[in-house]
Design goal:
Layout lengths: L3 H16 L1 H28 L26 H33 L2 H6 L4 H33 L5 H28 L3 H25 L3 H26 L2 H5 L1
Length: about 250
């Protein structure tokens, strides 16, 4: 059960997010593009041409993550779904975190929080839960569209869909915790967005590397989910250790 202070702070953070036009547009437009439009068009296109065999030039050796492509043309779609799902989970919290904290700092409403009988850990937990609630609500609804297409078109199995769901949930958690930490330490939107970009860029590269290097999208999904879980735990630990009321206000 959450403490009463956390519940009150969470309701305040949720109202602030919902009323922010920039946060809501970001939370809706980018996920629709990354989780539905692009993957949906690719799945429909690849399913249409699935009967066509894959002819590779002699001597070409595919990465281990794509070797199934020789016998199954749909293997490419399964492999590419992994980084697409991860990217969808990474983008939303990394952008909306700036609205939930830096806007408060610039409008000086954080000073009101400091005056309340709450601990800094309770403030961080409420902000973390509000970000996760918004990102999860949006991305899980859109992910259900992908799941229906994957199962309906015969692109993957229910186990593969569950593995993708694990990637989505852990990437959401990692992005939320790391973006919140960045926003706590950054002084303005530009700095926060620049640091988030520097963090997300290598993370996306890691997603594609794992997809290509690990044999099979199921195993690559589980490995990425484990990496995201470790990263989110590390970011949460650092935030709880280094963030103080003074750092929130500066």
């Amino acid at each position: 059960m959450l403490a009463r202070e956390v519940r009150i702070l969470f309701r305040k953070e949720w109202r602030q997010l919902v009323r922010s036009r920039g946060a809501m547009l970001t939370a809706l437009l980018l996920p629709i593009l990354l989780l539905v439009v692009i993957p949906g068009l690719q799945m429909l296109g690849m399913k249409t041409g699935a009967a066509n065999p894959v002819n590779l030039p002699p001597g070409v050796v595919l990465p281990r993550g794509l070797r199934e492509l020789v016998g199954d043309p749909l293997a490419m779609m399964r492999a590419m779904m992994v980084p697409f799902i991860a990217l969808g989970g990474l983008i939303v919290p990394s952008v909306t975190a700036s609205y939930i904290l830096i806007t408060e700092r610039e409008s000086r409403t954080l000073e009101l929080l400091v005056a309340l009988p709450v601990r800094v850990g309770q403030i961080l937990l409420a902000k973390l839960l509000a970000l996760l609630a918004l990102a999860s609500l949006v991305t899980l609804v859109l992910f259900s569209v992908d799941a229906v297409l994957i199962l309906g078109l015969g692109i993957g199995s229910p186990g593969f869909v569950l593995a993708l769901l694990a990637v989505l949930l852990t990437s959401l958690t990692f992005s939320t915790t790391s973006a919140l930490l960045v926003s706590l330490l950054a002084r303005d939107f530009r700095t926060a967005n620049n640091i988030n970009g520097l963090l997300i860029g290598p993370t996306i590269l890691v997603c594609f590397f794992v997809t290509l290097a690990v044999p099979g999208p199921f195993l690559s999904s589980l490995l990425l989910a484990a990496l995201f879980a470790v990263g989110s735990g590390a970011a949460t630990f650092v935030a709880m250790k280094v963030v103080t009321f003074e750092r929130l206000l500066r």
